[in-house]
Design brief:
4 helices; five-stranded mixed beta sheet; 20% helix; 9 strands; two-stranded parallel ribbon; alpha/beta; single chain; 171 residues
């Protein structure tokens, strides 16, 4: 991950790195016995900061909101999360409720990735996207018959319209 970010920084002025955690690296594998935040994925930002500390173009941003990533693109509020705690059709309204009440921020877009396929849904002017997985289908997904090509999602935003387009880049 650090090598990729470092190489990418040669093509960009600034790179902000955000990280969330989900259900893949919990310390206790039985989800009924685990605490969601007790997760090895939480080490990734710390490790990336150490590895990339001499690259002034890269900024590893700590999450202020538990497993949620919050940022703004062209004035639009975006929340990303792994999605393992959420029903996809409800995520926009639930996340907007949490962020409106707790942090005073209205959410325009959500992105999550737990369900191993592409999907989008709009409700109450909140657009939610379920994005593909970098690794595609793993053994767990295969056993659930959840298939997806390895991919990443790129969204282009502008100030007037918000999200203009989405590119699902197959890897």
């Amino acid at each position: 991950i650090a090598n990729f970010i470092n190489a990418l920084s040669k093509c960009a002025n600034t790179i902000n790195v955000y990280s969330t955690y989900g259900n893949h690296a919990r310390t206790i594998q039985n989800k009924n016995d685990s605490i969601h935040s007790d997760n090895m994925e939480r080490i990734i930002p710390f490790w990336l900061k150490q590895r990339l500390q001499k690259n002034s173009k890269v900024h590893v941003i700590d999450s202020e909101f538990y497993e949620f990533i919050h940022f703004s693109a062209c004035g639009y509020n975006i929340v990303c999360t792994h999605g393992d705690l959420d029903r996809f059709k409800d995520i926009g309204v639930i996340v907007n409720s949490i962020f409106s009440k707790k942090y005073g921020k209205t959410i325009d877009y959500t992105f999550s990735g737990d369900k191993h396929h592409l999907e989008s849904f709009e409700q109450f002017d909140i657009e939610s996207a379920l994005v593909g997985s970098l690794c595609g289908t793993d053994e767990y997904a295969n056993n659930k018959r959840l298939y997806s090509n390895p991919m990443q999602t790129l969204c282009i935003f502008n100030h007037e319209d918000g999200k203009l387009c989405t590119y699902n880049i197959k890897l």
